[in-house]
Amino acid sequence: MQVGAPPVPRITASPATATFTRLLHKPAYIMYPGEAMGEFNLDEAIRKVPDFPKPGILFYDITGVLVNPEAFGYCIDRMLERYRNVQLDGVVAIDARGFLFAAPFARERKLPIVLARKGGKLPGKKVKKSFQLEYGEDEVEMHEEDLATVRRVLLVDDLIATGGTLRAAADLVEESGGTVVEIFSVIGLPFLDYGGTLGDIPVTTLIEYHGE
Hints:
Low-confidence stretches: 1-17, 23-36
Distance between the termini: 6 Å
Number of strands: 11
């Protein structure tokens, strides 16, 4: 199924090399290729797997980035450039591939990482939030004592589809008294309307795809 979406205005580079930030469903920030570092064709590193996990779905596979040191390094470098002057005191990483992008970024910035895990994965005292899937319900949880140590956080994931997991994680941060400064993801699928789920939280992606 092909689903269209309006293009982001004023993008002069290819979607594979532009960084997008969305605020209230409008582009709020664009880091143009070459503005701070060299161009890299991230689209070529992302594997496209048809009919997975079910027929008619085109799966955007981030493992093609992870197996490519240049592509992975490019993603981390863009994160560091994007948030170089942004005040943060913690990173919330989404289970599970979000951990991989959050860890090197947090190490460079000397920030603590709070894991947002699927239900039943954390051993200590935790806070939980349920959210709806297309068929059924899922849950995200964090250690309560870890969450209490961070106030201004960056949420990190590898791919944003409907945004349900990130919305639940953001709610837990806010309910603990913290603030989600921004959400970062390598891939965004705006045709699945994650903007409607995430509301007014700014979102930065390195590449967006506008249909399956």
